[in-house]
Structure formats: C-alpha cells, structure tokens
Amino acid sequence: LSGTSVEDPVIMSKIRQNLREKHARHIADLRAYYDSEIHSLKQQLEASHKTSSSEDLKKINQNLADRCDQLDAALNEASARIKALENKNNMLEKQVADWRERFCAVSNTSKVLQERIEEMRTSNKDKDNTISRLKSRLQDLEEAFEKAYKLSDNKNTRLKEEKKMFQNLLGEYESLGKEHERVKDTLNTTENKLLDANTQISDLKRTISKLEAQLKQVEHENALKLRH
User: Fold this and answer.
1) Are 87 and 93 in contact (CB under 8 A)?
2) For the chain, which terminus, N or C, has the lower number of CB atoms within 10 Å?
3) 99 or 148: whose pLDDT is higher?
C-alpha cells in the first residue's frame, strides 16, 4: 500500500470490502468442494451397496464415514483459521487508524508551532531593529550631551532636562533589552517543542510502517491458507 492509499479512507474501505468478498468466495468454494466430495462418497456408497457383500459394505461405509469426519474437521479448521485471520486483520486495521489519527494530531501541532515560531521570529526581528535605532539615538544623545557639557557650564537647566531625557531613554532601552531576552527564551522553548514534535512524527511514521507490514503479512498468510 502506498502512503496516499493508506491515508485515503475510501481506498482502505474498498480494500477491506474486497478482502471480505474474497474470504466469502473462498469459504463458499471450500464448502462446495467438500459438499461435492461428500456427495461423491455417498454415490460411491450407494453403488457399492449394489455390488459388495455385507462385510465389504461395512468397511466401505466406515471408511466413508471416517473420510466425511476428516473433511468436516478440515472444513471447521479452515473456517476457524480464516476467522482468526480476519479478527487479526481487523485489529491491525484499528491500530493503523489509531496511529494515523495520532500522526495527524502531531502534524497539526507541529504546523501550529512552526507558524508561532515564524511569528516570533518576525516580532524578534522588529524588536532588534528598534533596539538598533535606540542604540543609535542613544549614541547621538551621548555625543550631544558631552558637547553641551563642554561648551556651556551655565546651561544647567538644559543639561538637567537632557540628562532626564537620557535616563528615560536608557530605561526604555533596558526594558526593550529585557523583553528581547524573554522573546529569545520563548523562541528557544518553542523550537525545542517543534523538535520534539518532529521526533514524535518520525516515531509514528515508523510505527505505522511496522503495522502496515504486519497487515500485509497477515493478508499474505490468509491468502496462503485460503489457497491451501
């Protein structure tokens, strides 16, 4: 089975229906074969009644009865084996469906995490650009502050205002730096979750492959038993 066929419930339903129909045909063929054997033996028994002695008839009758018992036992054994294989086949199909659902859930989670990582990367990039602009502005203010301090000792009021503005800008810069670190930590955590999700997806794929291999083996054994 290809990966696309396994994921298509319509194809899987058709495959299961074909298997059931094939099993039913094989069982019908087996019954028809054994019924034909029994009918042939009965005809031989009736013919032997006309031509054989009483002792010969008893032996033939016993042999035919033993043969009928053997055929009935073989038919019952084949039916039981086919039923067991069908039960095992159904169990493996349920396991494959369960693992497929888990695989889809993990895949969806992985997609959501990937989208969140992309959003956080974009946001982080914007904040990096903002921090760069603030650094440049801070450097300009520092240079202006130094020039103003050297050129004018009598402009204390202006210097105080510029110093206050400088402190405010410095606080804003530190706040953005902390926020930037928090965003980086969150991004690292999300990337780790994504890595775990991808690992789990790989494990689920291997498990599904094993279950599909077991399913193929059971179907192969079933076909061999039915041909036998």
Assistant:
1) no
2) C
3) 99
